[in-house]
C-alpha cells in the first residue's frame, strides 16, 4: 500500500477527533503513530526523567525574554548540555531531535508538539501537515463521550487545552497555531464521522502519490 517514505503531522483541536483518527489511519497503513510516546522515547535517549517532559508537554516555556520580545523564539537546534539541561526550552530541543530522527528513519504519523514546524524547518521530504478542527458543540460532545465527563467539564477542558496549545505553538515557533498557511490540508470535523475523516486523510496522501 505504501509506495514511498512520507511523514504526516497532525495538529488538532482537543475534541476534534484528529488524534483518534490519525491513530486509526496509522494502524490501517501499518505505520507508527507517535503522540505521548515521544516523551518516553526522548526520556530514554537522554536519560532525563520522563516526568520533566510530561510537565512541559505542549505548554509554553517560562523564559521572560521570549515572552517580552515579539518574534523572538527559542533556538530549536542542538540541546544544551549545561546546568540548565531541564529547562522547558532545552527539553523542547531534545524532543525536536527525536522527532527529526523518527521522521528521517520511518514513515509515520506524528501528533502535535510543533511537529509541522520542526520538520518544515528541517526540510523533511514528503511531509504532509494536517490540521483538524471542529465547532464547539461537536467537540464538547466528543469529549463527553471519550472522557466520560459532563458538558461543563468538557467545555472547561477544551478551553484550557486550546489555550495551552496556542501559547505553546506561538512560544516555540512564533506562529499562530491555527494559521491555514502552516498546513497542507485543514479538515473541518464538525459534520463528518471519524470514518469519513479517515477516508479524507487517506485520499489526500493517495493523491500525493504516497500510497496505492
Q: Can you say what the CATH homologous superfamily is? A: P-loop containing nucleotide triphosphate hydrolases
Strand-residue fraction?
5-15%
Distance between the termini: 5 Å
Tell me the number of strands: 5
Arithmetic mean of pLDDT: 89
Structural class: alpha/beta
**Main beta sheet, described?**
5 strands, parallel
Q: For the largest beta sheet, what order do the strands appear in spatially?
A: 2-3-1-4-5
Rg on CA atoms, Å: 17 Å
Helix content: 40-55%
CATH architecture label name = 3-Layer(aba) Sandwich
Distinct helical segment count: 9
- Please name the CATH topology: Rossmann fold
Structure write-up:
The protein has 212 residues and is of the alpha/beta class. It has one domain (7-203): P-loop containing nucleotide triphosphate hydrolases (Rossmann fold, 3-Layer(aba) Sandwich). It is built from nine helices and five strands. The chain has helices at 18-29, 37-46, 50-56, 64-68, 88-105, 115-121, 136-147, 151-173, 194-207, and strands spanning 7-12, 32-34, 108-111, 127-133, 185-188. The chain has a five-stranded parallel sheet, sandwiched between helices. α2 (37-46) packs across α5 (88-105) and α7 (136-147) crosses α8. It is globular. The model has no long low-confidence stretch (mean pLDDT 89).
Amino acid at each position: 500500500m505504501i509506495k514511498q517514505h512520507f511523514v504526516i503531522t497532525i495538529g488538532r483541536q482537543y475534541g476534534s477527533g484528529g488524534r483518534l483518527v490519525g491513530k486509526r489511519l496509522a494502524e490501517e497503513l501499518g505505520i507508527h503513530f507517535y503522540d505521548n510516546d515521544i516523551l518516553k522515547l526522548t526520556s530514554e535517549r537522554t536519560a532525563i526523567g520522563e516526568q520533566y517532559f510530561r510537565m512541559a508537554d505542549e505548554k509554553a516555556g517560562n523564559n521572560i525574554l521570549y515572552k517580552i520580545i515579539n518574534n523572538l523564539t527559542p533556538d530549536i537546534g542542538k540541546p544544551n548540555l549545561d546546568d540548565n539541561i531541564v529547562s522547558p526550552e532545552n527539553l523542547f530541543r531534545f524532543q525536536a531531535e527525536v522527532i527529526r530522527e523518527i521522521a528521517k528513519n520511518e514513515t509515520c504519523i506524528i501528533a502535535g508538539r510543533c511537529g509541522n514546524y520542526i520538520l518544515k524547518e528541517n526540510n523533511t521530504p514528503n511531509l504532509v501537515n494536517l490540521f483538524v478542527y471542529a465547532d464547539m458543540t461537536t467537540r464538547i460532545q466528543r469529549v463527553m463521550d471519550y472522557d466520560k465527563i459532563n458538558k461543563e467539564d468538557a467545555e472547561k477542558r477544551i478551553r484550557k487545552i486550546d489555550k495551552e496549545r496556542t501559547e505553546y505553538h506561538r512560544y516555540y515557533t512564533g506562529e499562530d497555531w491555527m494559521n491555514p498557511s502552516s498546513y497542507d490540508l485543514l479538515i473541518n470535523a464538525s459534520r463528518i464521522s471519524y470514518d469519513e475523516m479517515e477516508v479524507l486523510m487517506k485520499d489526500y496522501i493517495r493523491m500525493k502519490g504516497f500510497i496505492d
